């Protein structure tokens, strides 16, 4: 199910562009538009799920693990260092996009040097 005014749903259905690094039936991984490090990816479910508080159905079981595992693989595929990762979910009111997304950032030790 997608939400018509959600920017990440638009990226999922390819009506908005993004630098996509990985996708399967469940997950999409793309580069953050304002990267905090060389590898800064957002690992998201294709389904519109607002945030971790909305993970309430049996199909969501293990989703966070899969977002993380595929996010790490994407960093590896892009030549990044998976031993120097920063991971995180921002929750309301500290998030700006209301579609669940795991930040996967590497190298964490270089964060803040990009801007
Ligand atoms: P958060 O909600 O986790 O605080 O921040 C949302 C993140 O999504 C930010 O790091 C922001 O740069 C990124 N972002 C917002 N809009 C877009 C977009 O249209 N494309 C991409 N690639 N990233 C976006
Ligand atoms: Zn959405």
TrEMBL record:
Motif interval(s): Histidine triad motif: 99-103
Catalytic residues (positions): 101 (tele-amp-histidine intermediate)
Catalytic activity: adenosine 5'-phosphoramidate + H2O = NH4(+) + AMP
Keyword Calcium on entry: no
GO molecular function, one term: nucleotide binding
Entry keywords, A to Z: Hydrolase, Nucleotide-binding
Residues annotated as domain HIT: 7-115
Family from the record: Belongs to the HINT family.
Protein name, entry field: Adenosine 5'-monophosphoramidase HINT3
Location of this fragment in the whole protein: 1 to 115 of 146
